[in-house]
Automatic annotation (TrEMBL):
It is found in: Cell membrane; Golgi apparatus membrane. This is Monocarboxylate transporter 13. Residues 419-443 are annotated as: Disordered. GO terms for cellular component: Golgi membrane; plasma membrane. It comes from Lepisosteus oculatus (Spotted gar). The lineage of its organism: Eukaryota, Metazoa, Chordata, Craniata, Vertebrata.
Amino acid sequence: RGMPSAVRPQAPPDGGWGWVVVGALFVVSALVFGVIRSFGVFFVEFVDYFDERAGTVSWITSIGVSVQQLASPVATALCNAYGPRLVVMVGGLLSGLGMILASLSTTLVHLYLSVGIVSGMGWAMVFTPTVASVMQYFERRRSLAMALGFTGVGLSSFAFSPLFQLLVERYTWRGGLLILGGLCLNMVACGALIRPLRLREEGGEGGPERRASLPGGCLSQARAYLELSLLRHRPFLCYSLAVTLFNAGYFVPYVHLVAHSRQVGFSEYQAAFVVSATGVTDLVGRVVSGWVSDLGRLRLPHILALWTGLTGLSMAAIPLGTTYPALLTISLLYGFCAGAMTPVVFSVVPEIVGMERLFGALGLLQMIESVGGLLGPPLSGFLKDVTGSYVISFLVAGGFLLAGTLIMGTLPQFFSCANPPSQGPEPGSQANGTAHGKTEPAV
């Protein structure tokens, strides 16, 4: 009663203002992962300026990525408590502030704290809440909306590297970081574009009102905001394990494909072109995947299993590219499939836990899958050191994705061709750690 019309329970509008939120996701994904992928321009400058080893300097981005993923549950809990608009705006402010403070750094420790901790926390508060907001606005066109939003990563990866190099040449790395901080502040405006949207849930209403009424004081409410009961939800844990394995192999070609191309005898420019061409097919794959998913011919888990299986096979086939046309063809196939699987990974989550627990589920999923992202590339490098080539590295990386695809087959009703009749747990059934009715929700 008395609830403003903007936040009355409603069905996903599948358009309207949702496309503005997709635009916000485009900018956010570009300013988070585009910056992370292109930060190597500043990496070279840091090595020379601070006269430190490359391994020591590389901790700057490693800390930032780790904080972005590990702090995602905290960000989504804040969304459950205060709404995504405020959280994303604060996250955008922290992202820009970290880069601005980094421009004043005199030691590497300052960069660890500013870029790694401050900006990393800002990235966590921006990315996952924006993704969840887009998913709330769409149901029938959800995968296409996610794919269009994520195209910002591919486009910014092309544009930011030469832009950052130009900034460093004209204004040194300090001036470049200062300007980059100003660019990151645009995410504050992206957060302001997120309008409150409260969806109808089957079996009753959920959301902040239900969580606020939980007994047990602050501790119980904190557990509810974090959605910690999902850690006892078998389908969610099964899916998290599969995504963790995906993450362990997904980044290996981005890290080692250039080095492998050089090792088998191709020139620097040929190796660089392989990676650039892979980025183009990655972008195309995202859009095609969103369009195919929204046709409704196949269930999203089946589509994801198809793309992850093809990604794993193409990754394992990279060592077969002994000639340049063969390597380029396999790499293009890998880029297309890897890009196609990315939006579907997020789109499957509501089918696992339901829309009501989406924010908490995405936060926990990001935290759990970070283990794969942190261990995959170092393991690949270790295998190269032991064997002397990247053949085993790519085979193992492809095996991770194939293993994750097999684990997805253990999801309840995975082999059913029809969508399940209900999604996620009943509101109130597990939010406070107790079960009423069904003990394991359908998938």
